[in-house]
Amino acid sequence: MKALTYHGPGRRTWGDVPDPVVRDPEDAVVRVDAVTICGTDLHILKGDVPEVEQNRILGHEAVGTVTATGPGVRTVMAGDRVLVSCISACGRCTYCRGASYGQCTGGGGWILGHLIDGCQAEHVRTPFADTSLHKLPDGVSDEDALLLADILPTSYEVGVRNGRVGPGDSVAIVGAGPIGLAAILTARLYSPSRIVAVDLARARLDAAKRFGADATLTVAEATPEAVRELSRDGLGVDVAIEAVGVPESFELCTRLVRPGGRVANVGVHGKPAVLHLEDLWIRDITVTTGLVDTDSTPLLLDLLAAGRLEVGGLVTHRFGLHEMQDAYDVFADAADTGALKVALFRT
């Protein structure tokens, strides 16, 4: 089969690799019908995730059709159309029993495209199929479902839920890429009074406006004073969600929140950020971090199927699976291409 493989920082190849097979009784093999590229894949290619070995097939977000299962798999079978979650869950360890699947100690967690071969391929082996695949309703398209593999649950769980967004809150979202836009969509489920989006690119701020941001600011405009003016009582936002993964965006979030506010870091950081405790200790600020658990995926899938979660417009560029290299180039150059999320389909 063909797959996208990693060969050290800055080097990737689309070429022939062995077909995956069932190795464990709880495995399934899935034919990839739709797949996407994540900002985390770009971090890997920059060398920010040293655990990723050379020749690893990248990717952790896909929709496909089950082609084979191990004898221990009970809830999916060959022919089922499934969402391949970015997180694999053994279902038995202490963390999984508490629904913290991202911290699985039984061989799961974020492993696809990280510690084992991933989804940017014609087929993928998926461990723990019963707890890591989600059967899709007929009315949900491959493209829409693809967005629930990672960015929607990540934004919801690590950003909105960790940040404890509530009715009437003012929320700043720093970074209006796919994760930031998904945070806008899922924050709106809780009826905040105002959502302010911050980004370097005017095109992404325009997209944030379309997805429901009440106000948009460039990074240069997003001074604490300007954001305080946009907050409900002039004291700053209740919640600041970091959706970029660079030190400057995290440090900006800590300056935008009101006393008693929450900073929810979602971005994947490859460099240290300064935590200014000399300023924050007296302001009663809560800072959260996290890897997505995907325990919210069934809920988000229900909302999507019911028409309560509108994800149209997040995918801006579409390719055939064999055009993987072109898709990477477009996604990596989002400032010029205007790419938000790219989707690749079996043709």
Automatic annotation (TrEMBL):
GO terms for molecular function: oxidoreductase activity; zinc ion binding. It comes from Kitasatospora aureofaciens. The keyword Metal-binding applies. It comes from the Bacteria. This is Alcohol dehydrogenase. CDD domains: FDH_like_ADH2 (cd08286). Keywords: Metal-binding, Oxidoreductase, Zinc. Belongs to the zinc-containing alcohol dehydrogenase family. InterPro entries: ADH-like_C, ADH-like_N, ADH_Zn_CS, ER, GroES-like_sf, NAD(P)-bd_dom_sf. Gene3D superfamilies: Medium-chain alcohol dehydrogenases, catalytic domain, NAD(P)-binding Rossmann-like Domain. The keyword Isomerase does not apply. Residues 10-344 form the Enoyl reductase (ER) domain. Its cofactor is Zn(2+).
